[in-house]
Each structure stands twice: as C-alpha cells, then as structure tokens.
Amino acid sequence: MIKKKANYDVIFPGEHVAFIEEFESGKNTFVVDGSIRSLGFGKKEYDFKKRQVVIERIKQAHFPKIGDVIVGYIEMLFGSMISIRILYLNNKKFSSGLSAIASTRITSESGGWNSRRDRGERRPKLVYRVGDIVRGRIFSLMNSSAHATINDKDFGVVYCICYICGGDTVKFNNTVKCIECGMMEEKKLAFDFGKEALLSLGKRRE
Asked: What's the predicted TM-score (pTM) here?
C-alpha cells in the first residue's frame, strides 16, 4: 500500500490542494471554507496513512521573482499562449519543475513583426513548436502562475531543431532555416539565436 505520494508541480501561496472531506490540513497549509490551501511556495505531499496533505516548502531564493530571466523549452501550446518549462533562472540551472506562461503576440515596442505591420508590410504567422528553447522575463506572479514576456529583442526562441528532419537550424533574417532539408519557419527570435547561445547557457554572467 502506498503511504505517501508526492506531487512535483510547484504550488503557490493560497493555492487549493485538497478538500477537508478528503484530507486533513497538515504542515504549511491552512483551511478556508473547507478548502485546504498552501501557506507558501512548495510541493504538495499526500500522506494516505494519516489522511493528511502537507506542503514541503521551496526556498524563496530558488523561486522566480518579477524581473528574473528564464530559459526553458516549450512544453505546451494553447491558442496564443505557450507554457515554458524553466531550465535556467538568471543563467543558473533551475530544477524546481516550474513552468511559466507567455503570450506569443508581439507588440511594436519590440521592434518586431507588428512594427513591420505598422509600415504596411505583411504580418507573418509566427510558428512555435513543442521543444523550442525560449528565453523570457518574468513580469507577473498573479493567479498562482508565473507569467513571462518574450516581447523584447533579447527574448524569444533561442534555438530549435527542424520539425521535419530533426536537423540543425540557423537564423535567416527573421526566420529559421534547416541546414539539412531547407525548411523555413518564421518565429519571434532572440537576437542571439543559434546553437552557440544554447551551449553558452550557465557560462555567461548576467
């Protein structure tokens, strides 16, 4: 019989973790109107023997703050939003399993596609794919989620492989081009897109 079960998704302060009909309120939790909620950032753990849910806290120093720069891979696409699984936080390896949500809509302030649209040029459809490596900046921690922006020349796709053949890609103007099969896609690219930027992760200093 399983006595304990851990959930490795990061829980935010105030986030619902269980109902009092299911479990008792344990360490680092509190109860509001029958809902057991977290007192801080952490990971929830269910103790089936004691019928209790607890939160194992994550050190705040290891948790993103507004203004932090993240690098991670796209793990999910939904509409005009992407979910980024964070691998690096301020250029240091990050293993808390946290993801950030980012909009793929780019405004003219970035000097990107919308500024071209303002000049009457065609607005291309930017393509993002699961597995693309993306850099962004945390700008909000509202609604129990980390929100990031990729709307700056420093941010966007840092590296990706060809979705057709799996080959290496290079930057070609505002597109990526596969050096194996010639596939081309238009993406919001970071200024330093390329394998070199990927290999330098964890080596550069902010």
From this structure: 0.68
